[in-house]
Amino acid sequence: MPLALLALAVVAFGIGTTEFATMGLLPQIADGIDVSVPQAGNIVSAYALGVVVGAPVLTGIGARIPHKRLLLLLSGLFVIGNVASALAPNFGLLFAARFLAGLPHGALFGVGAVVASRLVAPDRAATAVSRMFLGLTVANIIGVPAGTALGQQLGWRSAYVAVAVIGVLALLALAAFVPHQPRGAQAGVRHELRAMGNKQVFIGLATAVVGFGGFFAVYSYLVPMLTNLTGLSDSSTTLVLALYGVGMTLGTLVAGPLTDRALRPTLYGGLALLSAALVVFWFSVHSTVPALITITFIGAMGALITTPVQILLMAKAKDAPTMAAASNHSAFNLANAGGAWLGGLAISAGWGWSSPALVGAALGVAGLGLAFMGGRMDRGGEPSEVITSSDAQHEQVTAAQ
């Protein structure tokens, strides 16, 4: 794998750190800007809103900009958003700064996925994309715990300063290692929007929202589930979250090669196994060792879904894959919000702390149904092609159906 993939992974590492470290620093942030913890939690929503809005909008604005230049511009905006977060003197400006920091998130992943797929041989496109996603999973093991600890010891603003430094390093690495990739002659926002009109793209995005919502239904309430049902102490939950990240990393490592060999079977298997693991977790959450094993497996299966969905969207969007790839991360953030909301409804209804696991399993099965629907639409049609060069006439890879 070329060094350019390492540069893209550093970008993903910074994004993962800034997105999830905020959750661990909400008490410190609340004290620092003199608001309640629930009100401070709205800055998490502000970041997610920035992702949902920024992915299609910034990708559309940059539709004619060469990919390397667009990556550099988006990385610069990421740095500015995190510096603004560190300097924000009150809740209103911090809310705006987190929204700003979230804007380039989806576009960076979308453009990065397209760039990664064009850096390697066509039959390794999915593996290249998964290597970029490794930065996100490693952030859950190293970046988030480190950022949280730094913020707790030196003040929450220091965590955002550290993320900004990571962003600068990523920008320098992108400038040094990512080759120039000119846009095709048909590049433009209309071309990208036309590709987004494909029914298969819509079904792929719906699969991401619903299926991955099952993952977030449990992830959002994992800490109270572990403390109330498993009996773990608050101090142990950080290590458990890191274990979740280990599972995600293992899942990402195998997702790329499996997707290169058989895209749809990998997606089907990931959703089916995720649903089954969530049902098992409903039973195993009361015992420490079985719960920890199941958590690791849930993390792995959640990550296993990410790469095939990303590659599927790029395939169905044909020679205008950038906006579809970016919109996938809007879909994941909608999954985050929706899964957390439905899991919270189950708890509020008095179904118990373990109920989000069953909610997540139901969402996983629904996502599997949507994936099968897309697969049935493929029957009798032409194979999908992931465009792996800037010229749509050269170097294409057939995505397995």
How are the secondary structure elements laid out?
Blueprint: H1 3-24, H2 26-33, H3 37-40, H4 42-61, H5 67-87, H6 91-117, H7 125-154, H8 156-177, H9 189-196, H10 199-219, H11 222-230, H12 234-261, H13 263-284, H14 288-316, H15 322-348, H16 355-378, E1 384-387, E2 396-399
Antiparallel strand pairs: 1-2
Helix pairs in contact: 1-6, 1-7, 1-8, 4-6, 4-15, 5-6, 5-8, 6-7, 6-15, 7-8, 7-12, 7-14, 10-13, 10-14, 10-15, 10-16, 12-13, 12-14, 13-14, 13-16, 14-15, 15-16
Biased composition (Polar residues): 386-401
Pfam families: MFS_1 (PF07690)
Keywords: Cell membrane, Membrane, Transmembrane, Transmembrane helix
- At CATH level 3, the topology of the largest domain is Growth Hormone, Chain: A
Overall pLDDT level: 85
Pick out the low-confidence regions: 385-401
Q: What is the total tally of β strands?
A: 2
Strand content: under 5%
Shape, please? Answer: globular
- Architecture of the largest domain, according to CATH? Up-down Bundle
Give the biggest beta sheet: 2 strands, antiparallel
For this structure, what is the CATH class of the largest domain?
Mainly Alpha
How are strands sequenced across the largest beta sheet?
1-2
**Class by alpha and beta content:** mainly alpha
Query: How would you name the CATH homologous superfamily of the largest domain?
Result: MFS general substrate transporter like domains
Approximate helicity band: over 70%
Helical region count?
Answer: 16
What Rg is obtained from the alpha carbons, in whole angstroms? 20 Å
State the domain count.
2
Query: Secondary-structure element sequence?
Result: HHHHHHHHHHHHHHHHEE
**Span from first to last CA?**
26 Å
Membrane topology: Multi-pass membrane protein
Transmembrane segments: 42-63, 70-97, 103-121, 133-152, 158-180, 201-223, 235-255, 267-285, 291-313, 334-351, 357-375
Subcellular location: Cell membrane
Protein name: Inner membrane transport protein ydhP
